[in-house]
Design goal:
173 residues, alpha+beta, Aminopeptidase, four-stranded antiparallel β-sheet, three-stranded antiparallel β-sheet, 3 helices, 7 strands, 23% helix, globular
Length: 173
Amino acid sequence: MHSSADKPASPSAEIFWHLVPYPELSLDALYDVLELRQRVFIVEQNCPYIDADGIDPSCWHVIGRNEHAAVVAYARILPPGLKYAGPSIGRVVTHPKVRGTGLGRQLMREAIKFTDSLFPGESIRISAQMYLIRFYGGLGFEPVGDPYDEDGIPHVEMVRSGMPQESGIQPEN
């Protein structure tokens, strides 16, 4: 399946979540993820930057596909030491045609669950766009530090305290 734009999810559509380490991403999955990220972060937000930042190969990838197998939601989980001392979640994105359906919140809940499973008890950090502080606050994140500019967009670092987890989630093969 190529292009997440072909058949975006409807508000009532079931989303199938996958946690995939980079070496196990198929070429089609990688293509679909990069297409969605470019559609939103570069074209929609009019923010020219190098999305292929060299970090993806060290990350876990949270991919939400609809009933047509189109990628409609995505986030990457960075292991401790890659960007921050602890784990972080980044490149959080939903397809423009599914906004307002609650999919962004569902995506973050899945990403948090996966991160807690991979790195139990550790705090999670994010670099949030300023206008999303309330959204992330509703998921347990709190701003730390002063706002800063990232690629021409105001951001703030946010942290969610670590919560112990009883059992881990295994990646898909």
